[in-house]
Amino acid sequence: MIHTAAIMARGLGTRMRRRDAAALVDGAQAMAADSGVKGMIPMGRPFLEYIISALADAGISHVVLVLGPEHDAVREHFTVVARTTRVRVTFALQAEPRGTANAVVAAAHAIDQDSFLVLNADNYYPIEALRALAAEERAATIAFDREALVRDGNIDVTRLQSFAVLTVSDDGQLLGIVEKPGNALDVASPAARWVGMNCWAVTPDLVAACRRVPQSTRGEFELPEAVAMALREGVYIRAVRMAAPVLDLSSRADIASVAERLATLVPVL
What we know:
- It contains ten helices and eleven strands.
- It is of the alpha/beta class.
- The protein has helices spanning 14-17, 27-35, 47-57, 72-81, 100-110, 127-134, 146-152, 204-212, 223-232, 255-262, and strands at 4-8, 62-67, 88-93, 116-120, 123-124, 140-145, 164-168, 174-179, 194-202, 238-242, 247-248.
- The protein has a single domain, classed as Spore Coat Polysaccharide Biosynthesis Protein SpsA, Chain A (Alpha-Beta Complex).
- Helix 4 (72-81) links the parallel strand 2 and strand 3.
- The relative contact order is 0.21.
- 32% of the residues lie in helices and 21% in strands.
- The two termini are 20 Å apart.
């Protein structure tokens, strides 16, 4: 059983900082969106609190927030403001925004465990997905059913082009991953049934791949590309197939719908 999770909260929030006159946001949400720190956008409570509460429900007892040196407000919130009784919150420094693989390496420096969960700071994952990953003994990810993401979450079909498409064997082995396929893949095709939402059980093999992965065409060190490299090198990665929604907080247009879906939840840290 894995008891530690790293949340990648270092991102610049470029899309979130873009003004959107049609987005339904209040003053506090707009101010947080201007900062680009999506995890601190208030939904009654900061969005990160809901993620951490879900991790605690899944059996996680230690949460590491991967932050940049400028994220003092996040550190202050989770050391001074928020009361944590179910989890211990600590921090890992990612000095520059160099991508998700680099964030994993930063987390590994701060975590004294062979395996840990890794997830985004702008997605609210179902507790059953987090619990399934925490129970894995090998590297693993959740393969989310495309139809369930669109039907039950706040993700439309077009947005699927910016996520990862997974190839999964009949016995649940991850065979391939294509990050951000865009128009190169018909997202309605059978080949795009399983979607990756950057939710992983990371082992030393994957951390090693994150250390060695070359820069992507976007100039970053990306976790999906590190995973693809590990697969080519023969690393076994389990893909847990699941028909469940993920709430995605990418832009200001998402804030109202995510807040509405979280309205009945009270995060307990």
